Every structure is written in structure tokens, then in C-alpha cells.
């Protein structure tokens, strides 16, 4: 594809501009007649044809089929709607880290010297700090506006419209969403009832459907299960780009696979500051890429994707590894307590988790959506699922011990 440069539009013959019009906006029946007359520069008909033009005609066809965006309620709106102060809402619905970042983050944000200067497009300070944190050299690391941005960026670099990805639901829904935005088809290989990957079906799908990439999440959102090394290695042997999303790896006690990108040309590993460092609101994620791939991601990336504030905050967070470790330990310990308590609730069946959330099947005739709504009225937010694979399930993020206590009181009141 090239770029057509037109220096003087007024010099184009009217028939040509009409043809361009037709090729962009395929026209039917009567509409065609109106446009043909418009080319004779009849002012009145020109106005009529303009009235027939609607904005959605400019939108790429595959995007016109996208389901409407379902925004989450901003915290302040939620607080007004529930009639509670934000600090009185127990927010266990988005796997955020309730401890927030180390105190150094707020200090550094409060004393920012150059907010009026554009950020470093290469996030050099942050990538050096991440190299030290991960043991992988900075040249393999690229930072993004959350792991979310990197998922989309990878797809934009890899997928042509009509290409395929493999998705293993139930899992993080952004893979499916971004595939649709990028015009790709999604081959779904559902997980087994215990939420482990169905390796045989994945191999089959790769052979038959020839997808460009597969998205794997470990620990998986929403159930918290992990993928063992043996299975990851088997998938890495397939002719497919493997994007391993480790957004919650810190809570699993398992070492990140970031360093593996030096050995595997078809592996990308994604991580984030949203969970480990309580920085979800500042949007910082990062990825480890093989050299043969990262050069293209650099070319396609928006230059200023990581803001000055985000980079400063992430660097300050990494400087206080003692705090990050302490908060992680507190959440892992609380996960164990919450799991035991949830087991005692007569209408919940919790799944063991390696992450900072617990998936529960809602049993005994209790409705999952109603449970979520009843808890919301009491100021406790949890996530409920109504999609095919997870109908009748809820996911509860691990909070502070006092959050668990309030949640349990509310659940007991509903028993
Ligand atoms: C599996 C998974 N990957 C990535 C993300 C997004 O991370 P970020 O906040 O860095 O965009 C999430 C967020 O919940 C997630 O659950």
C-alpha cells in the first residue's frame, strides 16, 4: 500500500471525485442517482447527498460489527450511586492492589520537576530498573501504557485482518476484544473443567487453523490456575507466536519466564505494575520480547505511550522492593484465609488460586448476579460472570483482612 498525494483537489475532474466517492461509500438504488447528479455540481442535490451521508460509513467494516463498549463505572460515580463515600466501598471486583504503591511514589509524583516536557520515548530509566528487577537485559524490554496497550500493539504488528489467534476461555477478555478491533478471527479452545489448558485441542487447532498467535495467561484470570513449564514448552514447539501474560505472576511464587525470550524466538512475556505495585490508575505495563520481534514493536509504538508520571512512579516503586514484597506476602496470606472462609459459605464453591483473586461457583440455587447486586447494596463490589463458560460464577479479589471480614459478614447475612 502506498500514499497518494493530491496537491490540488480542485483540479480533479468531477467524474473522478465521484468515482472516489463511490469506491469509498458503495451506493445502492436511489442513492446512486442522487450522487450522480451531485457530480454535476448542483448545489441543491449536493446538500441532499450530504444529508444521506452518515458517520458510520467512514468506519472500517469489521469495526461496525463490534459490540458496543461497556464502560465500568468510575469510582466517584459508583460512590454516588451507592450513596457511600469512596473510602467506604470495599472494591473486590477488579483485582486491584488495595495497599497501593510504596510511599515514595506519591513523594516523587508530588515533586515532579518537568511535567511540561514530553516523556522519554524509550522509557530508559524504567527499562534499566526493570532489567535489574527481572535479570533480563533492558534491550529485550519495552514498556507500555499498561499490559493492555502491549496486547493491542502486538496484535497490530502481527495480525492482518482475517488472520487468526487462539484464545483459551475462560480467560482475560481483552485478547478477544483486541482481536476483533484488529480484524482477526478468534479460534476458541476452551479450558478443561478444572481450568487447565486442553493441549491436544490447542495442537489440533494450530495444525488445522494455522493461527498467527496464541494468548496464554498464567496465573489465569479469572480462576487463578497456572500453566506448568512442560505445557508451555510443548506450545512453544508449535509454529505459532506465544504471548504469555504474567500479569499476576508475583502472587504465584513462580519465577517469571521473561528470560526465556532469549531462547525462544516465538515467545513474548507480558507483565504489569497494576497488581504488584498498586499502580493500576497510572497505567504501566511491560513486555519481554525476542530481539527479532522487539525492533518492530519499537517502530509501531506511539512515542509517548508511557507518561512522565507513570515512569517516575514505576521507578520509585521498584526502588522499594521491601514494600512490594511485604504487600505481596500480605495478599498471599489473606488469599489463604479468604479461601478457607469462602469454603464455609453454604452457597459458594471456591477454587484454589495462585493469584490475588478467588473464583467461586455459586451453588444451592443462589443467583450469581443477584448475589453481586445484594453485596453492592451493602458496599461490597465483586465481579459476576454471565458468559457461557462461567455462567453462575463470581470472582472475588483478595483485599486487606478488614475487607475480608466485612465481606464475610455480608455473605453470612445472605445465608
Ligand atoms: C490477565 C491480565 N492481563 C493484563 C491485564 C491488564 O493489565 P494493565 O493494567 O497493565 O493493563 C489484566 C488486568 O486485569 C489482566 O487480568
UniProtKB/TrEMBL annotation:
Alphabetized CDD domains for the sequence: AAT_like
Pfam families for this protein: Aminotran_1_2
GO BP annotation list: L-histidine biosynthetic process
Claim: Membrane is one of the keywords in the record: no
Pathway: Amino-acid biosynthesis; L-histidine biosynthesis; L-histidine from 5-phospho-alpha-D-ribose 1-diphosphate: step 7/9
Keywords: Amino-acid biosynthesis, Aminotransferase, Histidine biosynthesis, Pyridoxal phosphate, Transferase
Record-linked InterPro entries: Aminotransferase_I/II_large, HisP_aminotrans, PyrdxlP-dep_Trfase, PyrdxlP-dep_Trfase_major, PyrdxlP-dep_Trfase_small
EC number assigned by the record: 2.6.1.9
Catalysed conversion reaction: L-histidinol phosphate + 2-oxoglutarate = 3-(imidazol-4-yl)-2-oxopropyl phosphate + L-glutamate
Cofactor(s) essential for the protein: pyridoxal 5'-phosphate
Coiled-coil annotated spans: none
GO MF annotation terms: histidinol-phosphate transaminase activity; pyridoxal phosphate binding
Aminotransferase class I/classII large domain residues: 88-404
Protein name: histidinol-phosphate transaminase
Organism: Trapa natans (Water chestnut)
Organism lineage string: Eukaryota, Viridiplantae, Streptophyta, Embryophyta, Tracheophyta
Amino acid at each position: 500500500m502506498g500514499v497518494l498525494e493530491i496537491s490540488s483537489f480542485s483540479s480533479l475532474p468531477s467524474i473522478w471525485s465521484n468515482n472516489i466517492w463511490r469506491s469509498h461509500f458503495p451506493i445502492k438504488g436511489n442513492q446512486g442517482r442522487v450522487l450522480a447528479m451531485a457530480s454535476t455540481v448542483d448545489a441543491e442535490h449536493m446538500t441532499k447527498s450530504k444529508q444521506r451521508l452518515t458517520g458510520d460509513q467512514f468506519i472500517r467494516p469489521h469495526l461496525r460489527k463490534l459490540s458496543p463498549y461497556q464502560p465500568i463505572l468510575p469510582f466517584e460515580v459508583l460512590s454516588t450511586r451507592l450513596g457511600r463515600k469512596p473510602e467506604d466501598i470495599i472494591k473486590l471486583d477488579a483485582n486491584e492492589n488495595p495497599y497501593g504503591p510504596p510511599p515514595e511514589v506519591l513523594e516523587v509524583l508530588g515533586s515532579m520537576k518537568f511535567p511540561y516536557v514530553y516523556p522519554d520515548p524509550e522509557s530508559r530509566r524504567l527499562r534499566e530498573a526493570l532489567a535489574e528487577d527481572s535479570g533480563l537485559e533492558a534491550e529485550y524490554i519495552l514498556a507500555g501504557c499498561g499490559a493492555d496497550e502491549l496486547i493491542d500493539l502486538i496484535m497490530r504488528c502481527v495480525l492482518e485482518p482475517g488472520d487468526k489467534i487462539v484464545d483459551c476461555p475462560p480467560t482475560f477478555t481483552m485478547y478477544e476484544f483486541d482481536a476483533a478491533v484488529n480484524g482477526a478471527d478468534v479460534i476458541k479452545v476452551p479450558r478443561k473443567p478444572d481450568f487447565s489448558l486442553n493441549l491436544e485441542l490447542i495442537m489440533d487447532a494450530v495444525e488445522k487453523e494455522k493461527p498467527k498467535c496464541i494468548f496464554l495467561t498464567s496465573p489465569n484470570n479469572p480462576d487463578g490456575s497456572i500453566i506448568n513449564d512442560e505445557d508451555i514448552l510443548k506450545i512453544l514447539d508449535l509454529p505459532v507466536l506465544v504471548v504469555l501474560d504474567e500479569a499476576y505472576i508475583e502472587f504465584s511464587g513462580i519465577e517469571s519466564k521473561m528470560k526465556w525470550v532469549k531462547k525462544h524466538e516465538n515467545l513474548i512475556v507480558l507483565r504489569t505494575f497494576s497488581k504488584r505495585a498498586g499502580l493500576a490508575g497510572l497505567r504501566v505495563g511491560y513486555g519481554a520480547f525476542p530481539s527479532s520481534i522487539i525492533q518492530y514493536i519499537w517502530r509501531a509504538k506511539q512515542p509517548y505511550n508511557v507518561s512522565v508520571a507513570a515512569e517516575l512512579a514505576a521507578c520509585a516503586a521498584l526502588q522499594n522492593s521491601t514494600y512490594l514484597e511485604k504487600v505481596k506476602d500480605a495478599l498471599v496470606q489473606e488469599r489463604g484465609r479468604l479461601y478457607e472462609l469462602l469454603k464455609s459459605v453454604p452457597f459458594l464453591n471456591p477454587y484454589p488460586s495462585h493469584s490475588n483473586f478467588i473464583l467461586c461457583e455459586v451453588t444451592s440455587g443462589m443467583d450469581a448476579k443477584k448475589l453481586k447486586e445484594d453485596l453492592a447494596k451493602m458496599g461490597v463490589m465483586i465481579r459476576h460472570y454471565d458468559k457461557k463458560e462461567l455462567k453462575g460464577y463470581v470472582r472475588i479479589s483478595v483485599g486487606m483482612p478488614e475487607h475480608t471480614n466485612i465481606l464475610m459478614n455480608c455473605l453470612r447475612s445472605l445465608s
